[in-house]
Amino acid sequence: MAYSHGVFNVLETEGTLVNLKELNPDASPQAAFGARLRSAREARGWKQDELAAHIGYSGRHISAVETGRKPPTLRFSRSLDVAFGFVGTAESFERAWGELRNGSLLEGFPEYVGYEGRAVEIRLYEVGVVPGLLQTPEYASVLAGSAVKRGAITPEQADERVTLVVERQAALARPRPPLVLVVLDESCIRRPIGEPTVMDAQLARLVEFAELPNTVLQIASFDMGERRPFDLPLYILTMSDRQLMAYAESAHRGHLERESTSVLTMLTAYHQLQAEALSQAASVAMIEQVRKGIS
Q: Are residues 170 and 263 in the same domain?
């Protein structure tokens, strides 16, 4: 006997009642992942505990992912691919996990990151926080942890955000690294993030960044006032074929711009920002001064 009751199908089999939660793959990317996992498992004729034994997780964990109560992690997704024989295929759960992870990022940002790793020149302006390319893992962890406390992301997504920071930085460690020009609003170095030791290590990282042969670091001081051309973060990339693209974001969305005329206008404004900002020497001196105040 089977009948519907809310979001559950209640099945009576050999005298045992089993609650099987209906899945709506259109509800969210996480729900789609869970529905696909259940479909793949049932196609093999495996119970949740049987799949769990194959991948080193509990049946309860499998159930939580299938019903969308727990998001999958990269390790979990790769284990599924090995168990189902999906490694490197179009059906890969790792690929689905990547799409799910990107869903927790602002629109346009995952695509931007793909270009960033191949750019020959990177220009960026940031407000309020040190940008990901310059963050220490500890600083990134504090920011991600704060988002978890606000309920904006899950703990698993927080871990993945920190991993993304590390991956982005590693992508720039090439034999021929890109030229990276950074202008930070003064708020980036004045705003305390985490414990004093975390902030001090982050400021020390900025000083080290400024010493690299392929970087320029400047601070847009508060007294620039209305001469500051940007109020929001901006990233401008130059690709190997000299194509320009820009990524800008607000609190809720991001946009990747490839139209040359629009990007050239942003680039001109960025040059004006650099001209008004402190020199690298003066910027490093300001950072060191801030470090003395938090030590």
A: yes
